[in-house]
Records
---
Amino acid sequence: MDVAVFIFADGIVYGAWLFLVAVGLTLVFGVMKILNVAHGALYAIGAYAAATVVNSEAFGQVEGFAVLLLMLAGAIIAAVLLGPLLERFLLRLFYERDEVVLLLVTFGLSLILEDVIKMIWGVYSYYVPGPYALFGNIEAGPLFYVGYDFFIVGLAVFVGLVTYLVLDRTNVGKVVQSVIHDDEISRAMGINVGRVYLGAFTFGVFLATLAGAFTAPMIAITPSIGVNAIILSFAVVVIGGLGSIGGAAIGACIVGLARAAAINLWPEAELFVIYAVMSLVLLVRPEGLFGQIQQRKI
C-alpha cells in the first residue's frame, strides 16, 4: 500500500513538471501547426534568465516568496524579447512552405540558440538554490518530499486552467479557435491571422521560459538541459495528441506515473518505460489519445 502511495505522489509531481514543460509545445502546434523543436532551447533560456535575475547584485537583497516574482519576471523578459523577434523575422518567412521545412527551421534555431546560450552564459553550471527551500519539507510516512515540488504541481494546474479558460471562454480564444479551424476563412472574415500567430507563438515561448525559470531551482542549469526537455515534451504531446492541452495533461500524468512505477519497482527501466508507453499509444492511436485525424485540404 505504501509503495502505491509513493508511486502516485512521485508520478503526480513528475507529471506536473512534464506538463509545465510540454504545454507550450502543444499550444504552438495546435494553433500554428509548427512542431517547435527550439522549445527546449527556449526552456533553457528561461532557466538561465531566472538564474541571472535572482543571482544579480541588483536583487541580492530580495528574499522569501518575492524571489518567485523575480523568476517570473525573468521568464517574461525572455519571452517578450525572443517571441516577437523569432516569429516576425524568422518563422513568418516560411509559413507558406511545407511543414517539414518549418520543422528543420526550428531545429536549426535550436542549435543557434544553444550556441547563443554558451556565448552569453558560458558552459559552466548555474545554480538557484534559494527558492527550492521556500516551502520546506512535507512528510509522507517514512519519506520526506520537498515542498517546492508540490508548488510545481500547483503551478502546472494553474497554467493549465488559465490556458484552457483563455482558449475556450474568452473572445480572444474564439478568434484563436477560428484560426485553428480554418485560417483561410478566418482571413476572409477579417481576422488578422498574422497577429494571432504572433500572439500564440509569443505565449508558447513564455510557457517554455516559465517552465525553465521555475525548474531552475531544482537542477544544475547547463546549455544542454533543453535537449532532455524537448525529448520528454515530444513524448508527452505524442501520447496526449499534438495540439491538445487536455491531452498534454493526461499524457504527462501517464508518463509521470509510469516512470514513478518503474523507479520504485524496476529502476533499470526508468527511461525505457516512457518510450514504451509512447510506442504502445502510437500503435493503438497514431494521432494520440486526444488527437484528431486531420483531413487533407485539396
---
Amino acid sequence: MRILLSPSETKSVGGSGAPLDLAALSLPALTDTRRTVAGALVAMCVDDPDGARATLGLGDSLAAEVTYDAHLWSSPTAPALSRYTGVLYDALDQSSFTRATRSRAESRLWIGSALFGLLAAGDPIPHYRLSAGTRLPGLGTLRSVWKPSLTAATSEWADDLVIDLRSGGYQQLGPVPGAVTVDVVTQYPDGTRKVVSHFSKHHKGLLARSLATSRAEMTDIPALLRVARRAGHTLEHDSATTLTMVTLP
C-alpha cells in the first residue's frame, strides 16, 4: 500500500544530511524533471531575488525563503517526513513513532512536491519553497512539466493499493490512475453534512498515521476499512476509487 500526502508550505530548517543528491531520491525516473525544475528555481532566486519573491508569493516576513532556494544545492538535508511541518504533519506526529512504526510508515508514505514530484518519506531533501501553482520562468505551469513524467513513473504502481490524500493542486501535478481518494465531511446532529476545508488536513493526517503504522497488510479496500475502523475512523466506501471520512463537529 502507498499513501500519498500533500507537502506543506512550512518546513523545518537545517538538517544533518549531505547536500541534495537527486540521484539518491526514490523514483529515479523523475531525476531529469527534478533537475529541470530545481535548476529553474535556483536560477530565478540567484539572478532576480526580488522577482523571485513576487513569483513565489512571499511577503517581507518570508524573504529568507528566496535565500534558501538560492542555496538549494548546498544546504543540508533531512528526511522528507521530518522536513515538512504544519497541520497534517502535526496530526501524523512522526516524532512519536517507534522504530517499528517508523519503518512501516517510511515504506508506505509518499509526499507530493512541486519541486521533486513525489518523494518517499525517507528521501533526504533541503529546506525549499515552491508551490504547485507557481509558474517558473521558462517552464510554464508545473502541471505541464510534471504530469508526463509523474504519470510514467507511477505506472509501475498499477497493482498496488494507492490512497491519494493529496490536495487537488498536487493531485493535478500527476494523477495516479486507480488511486483511491478520500473526501472529509462533518456530520451534524440533524444528519446534514458539510465538506471539511481547513481541518481536512488534520483528519487526513490522523488517517494516514493509522494506516501507515498498522501492522496489518492492506492490499484492498475492505482490509483498509477494517484497519481504519479499528482505529476509530468512520469511513464510507462510496465507489471503487472514492472514500468519505465522516467526522463530528
---
Amino acid sequence: MDLPEEFVTPDGVVRWARLGAGPPVVLLHGTPFSSYVWQAIATNLAADHEVYVWDMLGYGRSEMRPGQDVSLSAQGRIFADLLAEWGLVRPHVVAHDFGGAVSLRAHLLHGAEYAALALFDPVALAPWGSPFFKLVQEQSAVFERLPGNLHAALVREYVSSASSPGLAPEVLEELVRPWTGEAGQPAFYRQIAQNDQRFTDEIEHRYGDIAIPVTVCWGADDEWIPPVRGEQLANAIPGAALHLIPGAGHLVQVDAPGPVLDLVRKFLP
C-alpha cells in the first residue's frame, strides 16, 4: 500500500494515502506498527468507501529524525490537523493500540469530531506499559547503541509477540523493516522513550463525556493488553459495546482480518 501524499508538520513529514470513493473512514495504526497493518482492511473498504490511512510521525514511511516530538500528545494534534487538511467533517474512525489514544486525545482535547469511533485493543486505561517498554524508556540511549543485528532481532521478537497464531515471515519483515538502519533504529527507541501513561491519564476521566457511538473490539488472545481492559473501557464509555475476536492476539487486524472486516463493516454506513 503506497503512501504518496505528504503533510508537513513542524517536526517532519507525515505520509498518507486516500483510497476509493464513498463515505469517509479513517484508519489509525498503533506502535510499533504502521498503516501496513490495515492493508487488507483498507483495500476491501475502498470498494465502497473513501479510506484514509497514514503513518504517524516517526513511524513507517513518515519522516524519522533526531529531536522529533513523536509523543501521543503530538500525534493527537497532528491527527486533528490532518482531518482539517483532508476537509473531513465527522468521518468514521477506526483506531488500533496507540492509535486509540491518538483518536481519543484528538476528540477530547482538540475538538476533532467523528460520526462514530471503533477502537481495537486500544491503549486507553491505566496502568499500561510492559516491563520491556518501561525498561526501554529508562535506558533508551543504551538500546540505541545496540549492534544493528541485535536490535533487529529484538524488534522482530517484540513484534512477533503481538500475534497469537504467528505472523507470516513477509509480514513480520515488513513490520520490522522501518525500525532498522541509521534512521529507524533510534526512531524505535525514541517513540517508546517519549510515550508514557500520563497521556491517557489526561483524558481517562473524560471517557464518560463521550457522546458519539463507540465500538470496542478486542483480540480474545491479546497478551499485550488483556481483554478485561476492553470490558473496563466499554463500561467507561456511555453506550459502548465490547466485541471479542476469537483466535486473535493484540495485532488483531492481521491475526483475524475477516472477523475484523465484518465488525468494521457493521460499524460503517
